[in-house]
Amino acid sequence: MSLLIRNAEFDDLDGLTELMYAYIVGFYKKPQPDIEKLHLLIQTLFEKKEGVQFVALLDGRLVGFATLYFTFSTMKADKYTVMNDLFVLEPFRDTEVEAQLFRECHKYTKEHQFTHMSWITAADNKRAQKFFDNMGGVQGDWVQYSMI
């Protein structure tokens, strides 16, 4: 099998859309966003100004994606990345596909001189937490909140 991790490209739009719906609706059970909004997000990431998206292709088939957003830390007075998404189809979880996507995000962060990469996962997603522990991730000291 041939694994390729690379930046998402315009030709990935349809396959990436399907993967993102599998992630949003299938995995996280959230409402399906409008396709126009999703495509606008993907196209924004193609520009690599506010973030970047990577895809995993196994024998030419899209099987996963990861998204980094760029932001700043006041405490470090510098920029860092937020790995907002790391998703692979079920058969590829806890495999080299998932590990290589993660490593590509970390490599991008270091190569582009961001101070660090951060991410969150659902409190009940024990599989992902174990994966991140195995990848060398360290749980932070902060408690996350959100508001609608």
From TrEMBL:
CDD domains: NAT_SF. Residues 3-148 form the N-acetyltransferase domain. GO terms for molecular function: acyltransferase activity. PROSITE patterns: GNAT. It comes from the Bacteria. Keywords: Acyltransferase, Transferase. InterPro entries: Acyl_CoA_acyltransferase, Diverse_Substrate_AcTransf, GNAT_dom. Its EC number is 2.3.-.-. This is GNAT family N-acetyltransferase. It comes from Paenibacillus aestuarii.
